[in-house]
Amino acid sequence: MDILLSRWRAVLGGGADPATVDSTGTELLDRWREPHRHYHTVDHLTTVLSIVERFGGSAAVELAAWYHDAVYDPRAAPPANEEASAELAARQLPDLGVPPDTVDEVCRLIRLTAGHAAEPGDPNGALLCDADLAILAAGEPAYDAYAAAVRREYAHVPDDAFRLGRAAVLHHLLGLPQLYRLPQPHAEWEAKARANLTRELTRLAATPLG
């Protein structure tokens, strides 16, 4: 947590009251540690931040990574969580000295993660979406652990309804022209991710309803 809090301080650049910076960062981390989260956790945040850093993301992309799942209620209908996360960023970031144009960009990027359909010519959107979807290209054991963690987050949903809803998500992702928009992630991850998604979809289809 200390390392993440240090990263939070660094991205804000020391332009705000240190106590406010720390209290806001601690509140965000508390959100990422909520007990109903099994995949959308601090580990996911850390992975996204690492990928953003690896590919030289701007402060707006890094701040969007911090906030993109800050509000996460599995019972909420899409895109309520992304909208609420963007609204949280819009409330908090001005008090942390973040310029209005950067706040606007952060909120735009957060909302973009609802469908991960970054448009051509949107490098910020491409990077955040690529980082958010990086798990899809993991090795089979890690991908299967991710899928199981998502199921635990939706434990309140009956099996048949979950299978139908999850299949719709997988079909949406497979229907994207590209899962990864940046050249290097696309080259390294695209085929692996599509294989994982197809494998999970096949497994879901093979499980009889009822």
List keywords for this structure.
globular
Descriptive notes:
The protein has helices at residues 2-12, 18-32, 42-54, 59-67, 80-92, 100-112, 123-132, 140-153, 159-175, 183-206. It has 210 residues and is an all-alpha fold. It folds into two domains: 1-132, no CATH class; 136-210. α1 (2-12) packs across α2, α5 packs antiparallel against α6 (100-112) and α9 packs antiparallel against α10 (183-206). The longest helix has 24 residues, at 183-206. The model has no long low-confidence stretch (mean pLDDT 96).
What's the SSE blueprint?
Layout: H1 2-12, H2 18-32, H3 42-54, H4 59-67, H5 80-92, H6 100-112, H7 123-132, H8 140-153, H9 159-175, H10 183-206
Helix pairs in contact: 1-2, 3-4, 3-7, 4-6, 4-7, 5-6, 9-10
In short:
This protein is mostly helical.
Low-confidence segments, given as residue ranges, are none
- Tell me what portion of residues adopts beta-strand conformation: under 5%
Question: Roughly what percent helix?
Answer: 55-70%
Secondary structure tally, helices: 10
What can be said about the biggest beta sheet?
Answer: none
Number of extended strands? 0
Structural class designation? mainly alpha
Order of helices and strands: HHHHHHHHHH
Write down the domain tally. 2
Query: What is the radius of gyration computed over CA atoms, rounded to a whole number of angstroms?
Result: 17 Å
| Net shape | globular
Between the first and last Cα atoms, what is the distance in angstroms? 43 Å
- The averaged pLDDT comes out at 96
